[in-house]
Amino acid sequence: MITMENIIRDGHETLRKRAEEVELPVSTEDKETLNEMMEFLKNSQNEELAKKYKLRSGVGLAAPQINVSKKMLAVYIQDDGKGNQIET
Asked: Is this model's pTM higher than 0.90 or not?
């Protein structure tokens, strides 16, 4: 599970280099990384889990932010089907 301890900070060398392309089809390892990124975002928007694990809420996470230098991004936004964001 990704926590705030896994999020690297400004100035880290990974954030300064060009991220690698992701080969298609996506590897099992990359799928696992993306699933973990999505889990982090969902957990960060869940009030109880965010408090329990001290997560900052977010709607997007790029792989370089977790020290994976690949062009991968996870975004999690809930809506009610009418374009209105749902508060969690």
From this structure: no
